[in-house]
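Weekly modeling sync, notes
Attendees: S.R. (lead), two postdocs, one rotation student

Agenda item 3: backlog of single-chain predictions. S.R. asked that every request posted to the team notebook include the full sequence so nobody has to chase files. The rotation student volunteered to paste the first one in as an example of the format we agreed on. Action items at the bottom.

Example entry:
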Amino acid sequence: MQFIKKTLGEVIRNLAAEMPDAEAVKYTTCDFCRSWKQFDEETDKVAKSLMALGVNKGDKVAIWATNIPQWLLILFGSAKCGAILVTVNTNYKIFELEYLLLQSDTKILVMMDGFKGNDYVGTINTLIPDLKNSKSGEVCTKKLPYLERVVFTGDVAPQGMLSFKDMLALGDSISDGQLDERMRSLSPDDVINMQYTSGTTGFPKGVMLTHANIVNNGKTIGDGMKLTPKDRLCIVVPFFHCFGLVLAVMACITHGTSMVPVEAYSPVTVMNAISTERCTAVHGVPTMFIGMLEHPSFDQFDFSSLRTGIMAGSPCPIEVMKKVIDKMNMKDIVIVFGQTEASPGCTMTTTDDSVERRVSTVGRAFEGVECRIVDPETNEEVPDGTAGEFVARGYNIMKGYYKMPEATAQAIDSEGWLHSGDLCIRDKDGYYKVVGRIKDMIIRGGENIYPKEIEEFLYTCDKISDVQVIGVPSKQYGEEVMACIILKQGAQMTEDEVKELVRSHMARHKVPKYVRFMDAFPTTASGKIQKFKLREQAIEILKLQADADIETA
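Predicted structure, as returned to the notebook:
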């Protein structure tokens, strides 16, 4: 593989020069269709407007929205002016948003009105009560000392915010020469994106990814899918995930492939986009594909144009993969495995692999990325066929966690190996298979959920003495969240009260499906809580053995 030594802005400039009239982006859910030349010009305007707002190289611009056109414009506009894009989970509520804006030192927040009943405008006004009285989105609050402006993605902004249209108008004060000078000052090794990911300890961490990290990861992924300018990728997965940003957007721009984004997933919307736009590829987590395959109107749509795509984000059931190949015509569907800290891909199956390989493994190591399986205790490499921790080293590894050197040192050892916490086996031909996790992370329908974050929040409840959050098997989502709670003496609380408490302060996918009140937790002789025993007990009590068998099959 020949590595790309360009910034995101340079990649878009090259596409505009080489194939100016080719379609870059086409939405089916709104009136937005741009050629590469038009897209390049429009993102120039966004870059200039950010510069007019005082955004300098290295400043943080956060985007809180679904897969709307403005998301893409902000991504490439911020890249061109040297800003670092901070991606915000669309499910975030006030507890999580405040932490992210504060920890990231965000200077500009770009946001939409809300999503799936989550009122973003209400949330930001609760967080910043004086915003309604501000001038053009200007912010001054001790809570968020770095935040200077709130921009609304629509043309008509709520009271106190700056509209996207008015933001663009500010860019007229910046010349083409000023933007070109800024772009020349940038390096492919500059941090361009911060994706927030939690850990088994502490709060979410800002993963610092460079132009080179994500552009080249996208290039490798597109190569593995054999993408060309003739392909059209339906982008269903959220832009705020590496799945959407890298496996989709970066794979497209490195191959001149047209993007057909869907603003928010629904089976019919996706199937309609694939059918009407004659998409050749579509990405999704297993539950998304299941939602389409099992939808009553599935047979009404034409999937004959499909060829490839990626199923990832959580363990991919073999039967689902086979149905996608057979019923959706995705003969060349592949799997990518990795984590956000690796930009995110480390291994991949390709269109050249057999169907058996593509449904039973996560492929072989990316070119330019070293992968090993090591004994978690000794860090020594284990023989092929032996389970151990998956570790990786290469161009794709993050620069580190923002302002968290100790956490960075825990994730990346002194020799540069990123420790994933995933248990894998490598076969004699170099194919990897995921068999479990060392860490406590829960994966529910493709969403990574970290118990410690929910535990830390529940600890703030004055009725709760102790809490342990675990994942229990689920046929539908892979795993579900369960909260095991010890109440304070004399306190009373119902399961619904616990669920509502989390629902009102955190993203909906973090709300426990199950709540168990206990008198004590199982512990080791030294007093360490044994989460695996809590899980075993839950499987027995909830009669989830059948789901557990599916999980380990």
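Discussion: group reviewed the output briefly. Residues 402 and 482 are 30 Å apart (CA to CA).
Action items: rotation student to repeat for the remaining queue; S.R. to check formatting next week.
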